[in-house]
Amino acid sequence: MRRRRNSEESSAKGSPAWMMTYGDMVTLILAFFVLLYSFSTLDVEKFKMIISSLQNTFGVLEGGQTFDTSELISAGSQSIYISKQSREELEFRKIFNDFAEYVEIKNLEGKVKIDMQERGIVIHIMEGALFDSGWAYIRQDAQELLDDIAQKLKKVDKIIKVEGHTDNVPVINPKYPTNWELSAARAVNVVRYFIEKHGITPYRLVAVGYSKYRPLVPNTSAENRALNRRVDIVILKSRESD
User: Fold this and answer.
1) Are the beta carbons of 74 and 67 closer than 8 angstroms?
2) Pairing of β 230-236 and β 160-165
3) Engineered SS bond to 176: which of 25, 96, 181, 231, CB 3.0-4.6 Å?
4) Is the pLDDT of residue 18 over 80?
5) pTM over 0.85, yes/no
């Protein structure tokens, strides 16, 4: 009887059996968060806040600091956005180099200029490379250039904006009363060429005419006005498309 009583007293003084399960559970939770952290982009200070909060909640250690989950979610979303933006920057650099190499190989420096801007890649095509002066019909000898560009654009899953531009000299053509009609018609004809001949989806294409109001250089000389008479094909970055 004495041995049995001593055994019961010893058992009563020890930790309850459920504490073993509880301890294992806390250990697994901590291990789980450590694993998540190893694959995350959270900084060290925020991770310390997570551990401290868990310690405070489960009573593993004394003290602990709570954290705002919305702050962590926001930080994670921002990291994903920055990562996506970085990938797109690399993608656009590759596209830019591809077009720049094409212009160099084809000796098109006087007709086509490639420009990297904040909104995306801009392919400036001078008026003389596509149209006769004062007209919006694509010349037969200009189609090879648009064919080459279209083949490259088909590989790019981005919104493409085609912009028509003129100089500040009034147009003399009954078909186009002002430079607004002329610039818009040129942009539309390039878009139609991409759709009808090359099958680029219309949902990716935008046509707009700017008339004389977005010159590359001041319209102060014949040379400058020639630079301003152009069609710009713009491959837009995602944020610009949105």
Assistant:
1) no
2) antiparallel
3) 181
4) no
5) no
